[in-house]
Request: fold
Amino acid sequence: MKAEEIKNTVVVSDLKDFDLGQTMECGQCFHFIKLGENEYGISAYGHLLHAKQDGNSLYLYNTGIEEFDNIWRHYFDLDRDYGEIKAFLLNDDEKLREAVETMWGVRILNQEFFETLISFIISQNKQIPHIKQIVANISKGYGEYLGSIDGNEFYRFPTAEELSAASEEELRACKTGFRAPYIWNAVQFVKDGILNEEELKSCGIEECRNRLMQIKGVGMKVANCVSLFGLGHREAFPVDVWIKRIMEVMYFNGKEHSNKEIEEYGVRHFGNYGGYAQQYLFYYGKTEKIGK
DNA sequence: CGCCAGGGCACCG
DNA sequence: CGGTGCCATGGC
Reply:
């Protein structure tokens, strides 16, 4: 992988194991708009990014090499060797091969903690398009305006401080439904420093989850997603309805098992690479409607 | 119209 | 503890 800046555009070339479309659409992230074939507008880290991939090259428009090195390189997880991850996962598990080879270009994004926390509280009992809508509503209502692409307006996801201006009723007006008090509660926890991002990143996964689950409305699954996508704990193995179905078909001979049993199996079987395995399985299984 | 969605909580035995 | 109903809202 190498990157160079040409007239306000950063060109990242010689990419391996990276597909922008798969990475955005695999269900880990909700704050973007698809603009065209492998072309996206993304709101993250206080910036609007216009990105387009062509073959092994990624074009990042209206930005520079400094912003790339400070933000996007890490955001897209480009410094990690996914060849090694795939080799580890496929070493003693042929069942995973088709999922990994089909979703070959998925990378786990390093997303912002607070946005990830609120987004996955929203995600409960909701489908991805609607989660995206609610994230956009909250951002438009309480976050800073970033710019527009082809008439699509982008806003920053608010900070905890900014979102604390919203009452529970105002959160409901963003179509959050019964999750409004959960979100309100989470905002207080972060704003008051009861949950500290650096501490959550540096402590172990179990402690991280336990701290997150102090928030009413955050259970095991949401805590695992926030740990994985927003705090860098790549061993987390979130079990949702899809992973449950997929794992039961692929690893349990179609027999029913509890979420707890499935998570324990995932953690034991995939170890420190649980989060990657989970994401390949989730995206592949959901696309292929495995178990449904 | 009914059903379900990247769940979690309260309440029950 | 394990199971069940309910929680807003929208897409199909």
